[in-house]
Amino acid sequence: MRLGPATPSARRLPPHRPRPAPYPERCSPGLRVSPALGPAPEDVERRGGRLSKMKVTLSALDTHESSFTPLVVIELAQDVKEETKEWLKNRIISKKKDGGAQLLFRPLLNKYEKETLENQNLYLVGASKIRLLLGAEAVGLVKECNDNTMRAFTYGTRHTFKGFDDDNDDFLTMAECQFIIKHELENLRARDEKMIPGYPQAKLYPGKSLLRRLLTSGIVIQVFPLHDNEALKKLEDSWYTRFTIKCQPTDSIRGYFGETIALYFGFLEYFTFALIPMAVIGLPYYLFVWEDYDKYVIFASFNLIWSTVILEVWKRGCASMTYRWGTLVMKRQFEEPRPGYHGVLGINPVTGREEPLYPSYKRQLRIYLVSLPFVCLCLYFSLFVMMIYFDMEAWALGLHESSGSEWTGILLYVPSIIYAFVIEIMNRLYRYAAEFLTSWENHRLESAYQNHLILKVLVFNFLNCFASLFYIAFVLRDMKLLRQSLATLLITSQILNQVVESLLPYWLQRKHHMQVKRKVQALKADIDATLYEQVVLEKEMGTYLGTFDDYLELFLQFGYVSLFSCVYPLAATFAVLNNLTEVNSDALKMCRVFKRPFAEPSASIGVWQLAFETMSVISVVTNCALIGMSPQVNALFPESKADLILIVVAVEHALLAFKFILAFAIPDKPRHIQMKLARLEFESLEALKQQQVKLATENLKEEWREGEKEKAP
Hints:
This protein has about 725 residues and is of the alpha+beta class. Helix content is about 60%, strand content about 5%. The chain has helices at about 80-95, 110-115, 130-140, 175-185, 210-215, 230-240, 250-255, 260-285, 295-325, 360-405, 405-410, 415-440, 445-475, 480-520, 530-540, 550-560, 570-595, 605-630, 630-635, 640-665, 670-710; strands at about 45, 50-55, 70-75, 105, 120-125, 140-145, 150, 195, 200-205, 220-225, 345, 355. The longest helix has about 45 residues, at about 360-405. The protein is globular and about 105 Å long.
């Protein structure tokens, strides 16, 4: 496999430019080691008939290689000063002990090519094979050993891992290589610099992330990983180019995009198939117009069991997948500070490492005195817009009743459609504000940042999307309007998401692609046109902002399906139809619309699991309340409404208790995964004991030597 649309032999390079190395799909790009690097760490020398391995450290690595496989692109602003470029280059290629990243770095265009073409400030970043392997150990990647167990990779024990060979470059995937480079770039931090050279207004202080400061100052425009066009084409062929119902190639997606994106597509596929029973059962309820709410008790009860079982079974399947990928056993309890985190450089009392420190009370003040009031204000504004929507509904209904024509009957759906558009706009505007506030709160860990952002967005989106439905159901008590509004909001939001997220960006990207292609074909310069075209094209692509919006869309869809299932059973059918196209449209945008995102290791879908479980609990309450409000159930208690309320509450509590018992009875991890994890924990404890015994023995020997020295005359 090669990274790039063509092999090096397919293009002629100018004689002054080193010939690029092949672009393998799987990592450790085939980098040629310069003679200055010396013997490779796996090389051995024979002395006295014994085979002794040479010890390799980061300080022994050279950063000046004649050629390397480009993995990551850094784009600088057009007016960046030369001294800034030289400083950035030195920090990237400098050794780790000197505060550098110890990576490989060169411009996309040399001096001759810059005179011929537009002076694009584009730079390619790569790394040697040894550097990537040492980086894999530093970030804690977990790989499968020859004994079929999953263990954290270490360079010293590399030969015990399955698939590793000194002459094989396929041990690490390209996604893992790019993740390692991203980790090193993000952890370049200011030491003694007071400012960025050439930009006195861009202040620095010890511990500040250099990449973050360069991005916020506008010196660095963007940093992104390159696509591997050959590997991408193979992935597309097995993924979405043939419109057939098939399983997602999650392992292939993981190898190319990383675990986080692979988990999303795995969950999307699982959730879609899990909706099919709901759709099959709900369809006859809708087609035969069964208005007796007592019949909906069966459907609501099935909804309760269904929502619990699918979430618990998903956790088991997710555990099996992430164990196979190595992320389930990845040690992440001590996360590195996120790149946007700032503070005064100090010593972390837990790890003993030097890192920025920021007082927790300042963060809490920002959350409770600024963020919380702002969120409440946005919620109030959402309710205000909702009341305007009901005024529009009343106006449309009054107009229809006064005229009685079929055209005004169509007008009854217009307020709901307009409100659905307004909801989407408000959700997107609020998202930007929530991101700004969460970043301003200055959370140390990326996981904490994501949790606070998700909480803010979920609260607003839940109220914004479902408040009108709750108002119709429990205040107006108009089931016909509830069914109409739910259907309109669900279908309109699905169509909008398909168009805005995938179809429109894809059309714009295709148009831009043709412009870039014509421009490159018109060039007369003797350059590496294929690589140049790829980099220029990809730098103009949109940036994929993560799986947040994708999970949020599924979360809201789950709410539409489960919250009011006894009123509109057809919701699951529309959800299935949408998701069958969503799989392909999301795959299309990942491969052809957005830049390739950096891989991120994940062991689960994170806080979204809790969000879906919370929604399923709320759905029990809403469905019990709706059934209790039905005329058929009310007719059973003509004398006392208090008895009806008590019975509904008792049934709701009983169902919730059954739900929690069911969730507890289904283990989160399969038995064989539990055994493997227990075995790993046992071996870790045994290794720790042996290390402590060895250390104690060495201390005793040292004390004995000291005693012998004192006794000696």
